[in-house]
Design a protein that fits this description.
266 residues; alpha/beta; Nitrilase/N-carbamoyl-D-aminoacid amidohydrolase; 6-stranded mixed β-sheet; 14 strands; 28% helix
């Protein structure tokens, strides 16, 4: 399986430009032979543009996700659209509330069909308005992409290992983590990403944004770790598209070689 991480330059509140960059990244990933491409957290609005959330919120059939669905089908590539600001009042069922906003990722298959929806569980409150503005999700994010079970989480979720254990026990061998991780906590980003891969003996890919908005600077440094914690691919601070091959069968091989998964006690 060939996985692409689209580390986009994200301009806060400039939805049209951000969508265009996302479209270019999807097209480029398809040209480079990727099977699946993942986008960063709130890639269309910009995570730190909190004052624009309400006016730019969309439903699951809104312009951003409709465009992603069309691009997936046009280019025959799976896409994790991770994430947008969702207006929950525009979604019929399966939402954690009848109204309000959510930080929502959506997985599309090669035909542009929506396969899974994940609403961020852990909302960041430290020097952030996210916890004040959004409703937390309640359901696990699990998407079947061909012969791979993919887990979906978002950014701050990385700090909560129990969520990743639940995803791994649901069968995920690859976990995708769209993020808007800021520069000051770079050490946490590195340690937590690798730890989630090692402790669950699965592939884990972080997809971060790049750029600044007001006083916040996104870290970049998107990464792919294998089930042993080995770094397979990474980006720098600038916008980039990295493509790497992963072998889902390696999950079972690592678990056989080092039986931590078998030996764990619930």
């Amino acid at each position: 399986m060939r996985l692409a991480l689209a580390q986009l330059a994200i301009e806060g509140g400039d939805v049209e430009s951000n969508r265009e960059r996302a479209a270019e990244a999807i097209e480029s990933a398809a040209r480079r032979g990727a099977d699946l491409v993942a986008l960063p957290e709130i890639f269309n609005v910009g995570y730190f543009a909190f004052e624009t959330y309400q006016r730019n919120a969309e439903g699951l059939d809104g312009p951003t996700l409709s465009a992603v669905s069309d691009l997936a089908a046009e280019h025959g590539i799976g896409v994790l659209a991770g994430s947008i600001v969702e207006d929950l009042s525009l979604t019929d069922d399966g939402t954690p509330a009848d109204e309000g906003l959510a930080n929502t990722s959506v997985s599309f298959d090669r035909d542009g069909r929506r396969r899974a929806v994940y609403r961020k569980h852990h909302l960041f409150g430290y020097e952030s308005a996210e916890a004040e503005l959004l409703v937390p999700g309640e359901s696990l994010g699990i998407a079947e992409f061909e012969d791979v079970t993919v887990g979906m989480t978002t950014c701050y979720d990385l700090r909560f290992p129990e969520l990743y254990r639940d995803i791994a026990e649901a069968g995920a061998t690859l976990v995708l983590v769209p993020s808007a991780w800021p520069y000051p906590r770079v050490e946490h980003w590195t340690v937590l990403s690798r730890a989630r891969a090692v402790e669950n003996q699965c592939f884990l890919a972080t997809i971060n944004g790049s750029g600044s908005y007001q006083d916040a600077t996104l870290l970049g440094r998107s990464t792919v770790y294998d089930p042993w914690g080995t770094l397979l691919a990474s980006t720098g601070d600038e916008p980039d598209l990295v493509v790497t091959d992963i072998d889902p069968a390696r999950v079972e091989r690592v678990r056989e070689e080092f039986p931590a998964w078998r030996d764990r006690r619930r």
